């Protein structure tokens, strides 16, 4: 739908490839990737999108995209001191691929965060309801692999 009236041409193979990369068909993330693909095609003066174009757009977007910055800024703006806890949960999840319910609870109990009574509400009402994470079988994963890749790039966990 998004490319229907555009000059960009997308074969069914490339469309399937793009959707498989996105995993979840969240319009926001589809739009972010399509916009970057369109910019790249315009620079190259081409109209046919390739898998390589998708990879290039994905790589660029997951490392330096202002549209994804707002996901972090929202936490800082609306959740002040609790933002550090939420960002830590997201950082662990991004770097490890998922985060267990028990690890989120343990983190909430540490003196650094001390969010003993409201941590579950914060996870459910902020990170899940706002579209950062989803929960399945007591494990949380990012809804969007693109947002996960961006978060992992911005907040890597460096091991000694």
Architecture overview:
- By secondary structure, the chain is mainly alpha-helical.
- Helix content is 62%, strand content 6%.
- It has a three-stranded antiparallel β-sheet.
- Strand 2 and strand 3 form a beta hairpin.
- Helix 2 crosses helix 3.
What's a quick, concise take on this entry?
This protein is mostly helical. The protein has helices at residues 12-22, 27-44, 51-63, 66-79, 83-96, 101-109, 119-128, 145-154, and strands at residues 99-100, 133-136, 139-142.
Number-wise, the strands total 3
Shape: elongated
Low-confidence stretches: none
Strand content: 5-15%
Please tell me the overall pLDDT.
91
Q: How are the strands ordered across the major sheet? A: 1-3-2
Spatial extent as radius of gyration: 18 Å
Helix-strand makeup class: mainly alpha
Helix content: 55-70%
- Major sheet size, sense and barrel closure: 3 strands, antiparallel
Number of helical runs?
A: 8
Which key features would you list for this structure?
single chain; 160 residues; mainly alpha; 62% helix
Detail the topology: elements first, then pairings.
Layout: H1 12-22, H2 27-44, H3 51-63, H4 66-79, H5 83-96, E1 99-100, H6 101-109, H7 119-128, E2 133-136, E3 139-142, H8 145-154
Antiparallel strand pairs: 1-3, 2-3
